[in-house]
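Weekly sync notes, structure subgroup
Attendees: PM, AL, DS (notes)

Item 1: joint prediction request from the bench team. They want all two components modeled as one assembly rather than separately. Inputs as received:
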Amino acid sequence: MPTTLTVNGRRVRVDAAPDTPLLWVLRDALGMTGTKYGCGIAQCGACTVHLDGAPVRSCALPLSAVGNGAVTTIEVLHQDRRGKALQEAWIAHQVPQCGYCQSGFLMAATDLLTRTPVPTDADMDAALTNLCRCGTQPRMKAAIREAASRLHDAAGRREP
Amino acid sequence: MSPVSRRTFLAAAGGTALVLGVVPGFRRLRVLTGEAAEIEREAGRLNAFVSIDASGKVTLVTHRAEMGQGAYSVVPQMLAEELEVDYATVEIVVAEGDSARYGSQITGGSSTVRGSLTQLLVAGATARDLLVRAAAQRWGVPPAECRAERGTVVHPASTRRAGYGELVADAARLEPAPKVPLKPRARYTVIGKSLPRRDLPAKVNGSAVFGLDFRLPGMQFAVVERSPRFVGRVKRFDATASLKVPGVTKVVKVERDVFGHRREGVAVVATNTWAAIQGRRALEVEWDDGDAPAVDTETLYARMREAVRSPGNHFRSQGAASVALERATDVLDVTYETPYQAHACMEPLNCVAHVTADSAEIWGPIQGPDWVRGHLADALGLPLEKVRVHMTFLGGGFGRKAFTDWTHEAAMVSKAVGGPVQVVWTREDDLTQGPFRPGMVYRCRGAVANGRVLAFEGTMAGQNMNAQEPGSDPRAFNRDVVEGIHEGWFDAIGHWRFGDAPLEAPIPVMWWRSVYSSTNAFAYESFVDELAAKAGVDPFTFRRRHLRDARVTALLDRLAQVSGWDGRAKGQGYGLALTHCFGSSAGHVVKVRRAGSGVAIERVWSVIDCGLAVNPDGVKAQVEGSVVMALAAACTHEMTFAGGVAAKRNFDAYRLPLLRDVPPIEVHVLESEHPPGGAGEPGLPGVAPALCNAIADLAGTRIRRLPFDLARI
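Output from the run, pasted for the record:
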């Protein structure tokens, strides 16, 4: 059934059943494979995307619930200054190992910095409920701190 | 860095490339020149090889998988040292599965660095020597007056320079030196540096292609309903409802080979993954389990507890442990238990297969592409050269993706469909189908005298992953019974005996990061701590007293120093463990504190001696990851079986650690003059015993069964 949705600022038409989770629409219908399948029950967060700016687990979000909402995925995360700062910090701290869960973590961390520009460890613990099997969690925390601090400094320079 | 196919690379190399390869059997190097077709034909006889084209671009074929350990960076890093090029400019070509060309390609046993270092140093040095000699000849100067730096040969006396690309045609006409002296370690400028990983930009922007992300034109998607009790045959299935799901195109019975045993399933093929999943929900399958027992966790462990009451197969002994223990007045006799575990890679199993009447091509997250190739050639009745196997990025492996069963199944689906198919394992499939790390029971008996271990007897019960093929003896020795134990213990103790009592069960089992070390260490390093307490000796002192080797002493000194062990008081919640496996030793100190009715982990200090650390930060990352995986295995993870079926189906029941569950981890990499050991696994086994030793120190509670709940101590 043809449906129109907005992904990364573009209107796209897909032919998919209304109960199809957004994850599979992105991956199979649109060929955007940066968003990952990990569990299918909204537990691991590998499929995290933003819907109207808020993080959602796309494996449990049916296409019919997306409606006219704006979907943002890892493929354009660098266009967000927080997302870009996080991506750079992720590399500076050599965070990823296998890398499979990292798209979802970066989407969730970007949301955290949007809501809480200078998060404490407790803020990170509460906000980031994604799963990583390689054990990159300690480096993620360090990378988020660095990205937050850089963004904070940059903001300070713009508004003296 | 975008892996290109070998064919593209050879075409680009053209007729002016310098191609250096190592012939199977290793060490002999050959230089190839001529037309691309000729090079390709000749290169077929070469092992991992290096080429430099007329533009100076260096290309390196890597035959190891990238599964998170940084292979695509550390492999060119090793080559760059002697070749004198920037490691970041070395183009990586990911090898296809081909054991005749590359030897074993298994990415396992913590072997990526230690299995390739010498080969890559020799290849780099030989190529550099040819280029230096070519330049010297051109300039009419002695080669000794020239040197190579950053892809260029220079003659400082005359300030002449020539890029590698300008020299390759001449270099390729020279005879390679049979033996080029390698740099002493003190002169390394690339090895030993924490150079950044080259695959990370693609892993933070979603562009890295994992197996599940691989696409072919016209590719369909499939999921498979498999026997929940592993051994069942398809008695009948009804696909009527499945075929009514829009997008479902075919439903077909398939099989795969698991350790020589045929496993059956029914595949639902569709135009997209979701339709295939929906079609499978509508599928009806009736299984025939034959006379296979429907096992439960409780009965399996009851059998293992019974089995360790007798001494089991004799594996290795010294002195007369049983006599010494009979005579001893105070014998400690305890059992330790560890659970079955799933690998639970974040990327579930998946495979793209395209099988035709006379060929097969496979893409996926594969740890052993040469094994997959051999397996499929046999299974499909194709000559080896008609089977091509490609490795994508692996979203975790941990041993599971070293096996070949799931690629076999994907090939069967593609064959039935007559086109390319991606078989996707759902998380439930991935967690419940195994193979699993086997659950184990250990009985340890020991006594102390004069502050030392007098006698030690260890018996382990559990499934033997090395005896699962049809016709193999399920009662065969399990030679891994002492894996993980520091060899020094065998010299230090007068009387010891190790044996095993194999358990027969219809549960497929196999390697899980650090293999039997991961469970052996919990038993033996916990027991050493219990013996130290019995002797009234500090755990560090106790180990130092027995393990006199200089490397162990250096490791223990560093660990005591960084963890502040000597300044602590007994009872403050510090625990120690020390293990050795895959060529490296690792020690951990865990610090716990009271938290409500349980304990919290305050910090973990880890010291690893992996000999030469080619990329120290990469080693650190591997140890950090090992600590996190080990803590989850100790405190949370347990695959249980009920009625023969794996009972934990998804991450809601098999919970991975959250950010808040991970304590600060401080890893120290010892500098060492020794050859490289492994890094991916040795940091794992000691974590659980160090944690339980810390809890015993804090609370006086000895934990002998994993997993346990940190919130209730």
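Discussion: Chain B is about 30% helix and 25% strand.
Action: AL to compare against the crosslinking data before next sync.
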